[in-house]
Amino acid sequence: MLRTATKIVRDPEMALGVAIMAVLVLVAVAGPFIWRVDPLKVNVLNSLLPPSLDHPMGTDDVGRDVFARFIWGAQVSIGVALAVTVIGTLVGGVLGLIAGLLSGAVDLVLSRIMDAILAFPPLILAMAVAIGLGTGMVSAMVGVILAAIPWYFRLLRGEVLRLRHMMYVESARALGASNMRLIRHHILPQTVSTILIQASSVFSFSVMTMAALGFVGLGIQPPVPEWGTMITEGLAYALTGQWWLGLFPGLGIFALAVAGNVIADRLRDIYDPKSGLGIGG
Known about the structure:
mainly alpha; 11 helices; 72% helix; elongated; protein transport; peptide transport; ABC transporter permease
């Protein structure tokens, strides 16, 4: 464990990904206390002002401070992505563990359900769920979670099927260990690295998908600031010189998604030495 932690700290790509993520989290958490501007306050006299000392990211078409809205958007994007990642991990992971350990009819039924969900492209599935349940944050989250669950399921099911035939697991079963004990003490600890890698990837997927749903009007609705919605609002002014309206939320989405993907890729390289791409030593 200590050796792995040392590799993570010394890896420049991992350090960059963690640094970007830390900055965005800091903006979301500390931003409201440092920049005390109401992101919903309308002042038409200050509409479409370019970035300045008074408004670091300019103002929008009704005079709202874009930086304040960017901070709120960071809170929304990071909070929703974390919620989707945690819920997807719990639901998909538990179902994968159950299917892999019990096998038989339970595994068959759960696998066919997950295959049916995977038959739909993730974004299309999230959009369909959001349309069916009605636009809004909760509907969008349900759609993204539903799209993410099969990934955890297939990953954890495969890991359990591999581990359940290991000698130490067979020995524990022969000594009378229950299924719950096998999961807690012999299987789940061996899948932590796999779960972390998948969670990092799902976090980036959640950020991009929630932004896409907001962009097409199926996600979080105005006036709540959300990066995808902010980009949509800025498109109307992109050709008239007000570039800041869509640029800054777009950079936020890009940075958050890239940081999550970089962390996932480097974790995969660290925990999978067979890939040949791992960190040396």
